[in-house]
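Worked example 3 (structure in, sequence out).
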């Protein structure tokens, strides 16, 4: 997402786009309401991040032109649902998400989770590294004669982030000074900690701005006993490697972290920092009651939370929506409804 923000600020992009902002779905689709011109059927944009460590190239290839008017024909009942209708809906849904993805980094496909909206911790102290955050689900949907945005509240379990060692000690309800506990984990405790940490994203102190890696497991031996071969083919331990680099480990008796990936890479725990992120797996059985209590709302409170969510969704201030010509009525849609009488049931025992 950061890369596409920088692309749209480049002079060469502004020249062909006229300053109109396109939207990106975080995968491989980019939508723009302005043609980038025939000369930009295949456009390559080159730039560096501020630290100058790497040059990036993003290539845009025009693959189709879509006409939003087919959506109007669809909601008026003049057209069947087809691929073009789905594509327009996709573009509109990306447009309503784009500004929020820039502002609130914790999100999934249709929901954004915002600590300022509401948050709560778990009762069990071993989950001090986790919080429940209130979020907002949003999705553009066609109905008879119009388009609506379906908004609801949602709940996300968030890893708060911080030094990996501190998070591991919190899990065992140990003070942050009790490093000896982590150095002498029993097989059962090691397995429990691995289960808690598996899939959690982290960065290292050496490359804090690099793409985060995901935790796979913990090594069964400490950093001073875990051996590998360096580029010269010399076998050495993780602790020895860091000493020779001039950055000796403070806690060489702690296990190391192995990341998920094709190539096996191992890092000392003290070099690892967990980024704030959505929990990448289902909650444990002993967390379910807390999540249900936080997420279950009475109808009038749910509606109030949805109304409050408009200050975070900021549809009226969203430049991407303005460029796409989308405006949103902040008032909920009111519908006539009636309660149906339940059918009578007959039962013969």
């Amino acid at each position: 997402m950061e890369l596409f923000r920088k692309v749209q600020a480049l002079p060469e992009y502004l020249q062909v786009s006229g300053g109109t902002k396109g939207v990106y779905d975080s995968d491989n689709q980019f939508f723009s309401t302005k043609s980038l011109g025939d000369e930009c059927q295949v456009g390559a944009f080159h730039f560096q991040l501020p630290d100058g460590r790497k040059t990036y190239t993003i290539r845009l290839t025009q693959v189709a032109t879509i006409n939003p008017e087919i959506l109007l024909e669809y909601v008026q009942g003049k057209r069947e649902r087809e691929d073009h209708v789905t594509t327009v809906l996709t573009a509109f849904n990306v447009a309503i998400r784009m500004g929020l993805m820039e502002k609130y980094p914790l999100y999934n496909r249709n929901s954004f989770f915002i600590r300022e909206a509401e948050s709560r911790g778990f009762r069990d102290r071993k989950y001090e590294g986790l919080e429940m955050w209130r979020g907002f689900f949003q999705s553009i949907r066609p109905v008879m004669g119009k388009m609506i945005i379906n908004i609801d509240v949602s709940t996300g379990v968030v890893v708060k982030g911080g030094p990996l060692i501190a998070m591991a000690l919190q899990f065992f309800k140990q003070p942050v000074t009790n490093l000896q506990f982590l150095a002498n984990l029993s097989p059962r405790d090691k397995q429990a900690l691995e289960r808690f940490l598996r899939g959690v994203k982290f960065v290292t102190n050496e490359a804090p701005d690099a793409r985060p890696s995901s935790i796979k497991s913990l090594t069964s031996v400490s950093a001073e006993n875990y051996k590998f071969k360096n580029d010269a083919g010399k076998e050495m331990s993780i602790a020895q490697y860091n000493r020779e680099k001039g950055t000796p480990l403070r806690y060489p008796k702690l296990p190391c972290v192995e990341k998920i990936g094709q190539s096996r890479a191992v890092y000392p725990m003290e070099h690892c920092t967990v980024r704030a992120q959505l929990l990448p797996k289902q909650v444990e059985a002993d967390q379910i009651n807390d999540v249900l209590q936080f997420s279950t709302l009475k109808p009038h409170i749910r509606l109030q939370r949805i109304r409050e969510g408009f200050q975070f969704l900021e549809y009226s201030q969203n430049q991407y929506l303005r460029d796409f010509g989308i405006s949103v009525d902040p008032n909920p849609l009111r519908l006539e409804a009636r309660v149906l009488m339940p059918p009578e049931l007959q039962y013969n025992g």
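Notes: DSSP finds eleven helices and 17 strands in the chain. Residues 174 and 181 are 8 Å apart (CA to CA).
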